[in-house]
Specification:
about 250 residues, two-stranded antiparallel sheet, 9 helices, about 5% strand
Length: about 250
């Protein structure tokens, strides 16, 4: 996870030069996002298994024992970034530009973090007879969920690079990142185990992550549509030129 954050930071720092964003601003944002993400990842896991932690609150701070969630980290990171925006008094255009850079770097962090998950046999998959199934410690052949998430991260990286030129407004790349990840995550979670001690709890046949994925998907679609409908702002210089042309006529 730490390597994923560092890789993302290096990527954003390099891209920030091209976007003429100050390096100091990127570093400040990084710390806010890092703290928010780590706290959010842990709280997301705690809320997913409340009976385990509320009876023994001391266990909540034992983050070294494992127990983190992606969507908790995403939520915490967004909250940290929004607070950073308020503290630095950034306008929506500046903040949107930085959010887009984070979205472009996110797949790299996801890939690195999921490689770690794959190496430690994290995320128990459902039983499968497919040839690429892996033998789990329980002796059963299961879906390699972490491997699917790695491949998904690679696809996300290249898809963002393809659609980036078509997303002209600041913040749209970040919204598309949310759209694609939530949609793909919703379907990938069907390859996870159900009904075992390591399974995520389910409500109405869906895991908590799947319900969150649906919410984020529809939210990001709505936001993207809203940004595309916003009228383009006319620069003051262009407005003056238009008025001069009218007077000349």
């Amino acid at each position: 996870m730490a390597l994923g954050f560092l890789a993302g930071l290096v990527f954003v720092l390099r891209q920030a030069k091209e976007e003429r964003i100050k390096k100091e601003l990127v570093w400040d944002l990084f710390w806010w996002v890092l703290v928010g993400s780590v706290v959010g990842m842990r709280l997301g896991y705690v809320l997913q298994f409340p009976q385990k932690f509320f009876s023994n609150p001391v266990e909540i701070v034992k983050i070294w024992d494992g127990g983190l969630t992606f969507y908790g980290g995403l939520s915490g990171g967004i909250i940290g970034a929004l607070y950073f925006k308020k503290v630095k008094n950034l306008n929506s255009k500046e903040f949107g530009k930085m959010a887009d850079l984070i979205a472009l770097s996110a797949p790299l962090g996801i890939i690195i973090a999921r490689i770690g998950c794959f190496l430690i046999n994290d995320h128990q998959g459902a039983l499968t007879s497919l040839p690429w199934g892996i033998v789990w410690p329980d002796g059963q052949i299961r879906h390699p969920v972490a491997l699917y998430l790695i491949i998904n991260g690679v696809l996300l990286y290249y898809i963002l690079e393809v659609v980036k030129p078509f997303l002209k407004k600041e913040g749209q790349v970040f919204l598309f990142f949310l759209l694609f990840y939530s949609l793909s995550r919703f379907f990938l979670d069907f390859t996870r185990s159900v009904g075992t001690e390591l399974s995520d709890p389910r409500y109405l046949f869906l895991s908590i992550s799947q319900w969150v994925s649906l919410f984020i998907f529809f939210l990001s679609v709505t936001a993207l549509i809203a940004t595309r409908k916003q009228p383009k702002l006319i620069k003051a210089s262009d407005k003056l030129n238009c008025e001069k042309e009218k007077r000349g006529r």
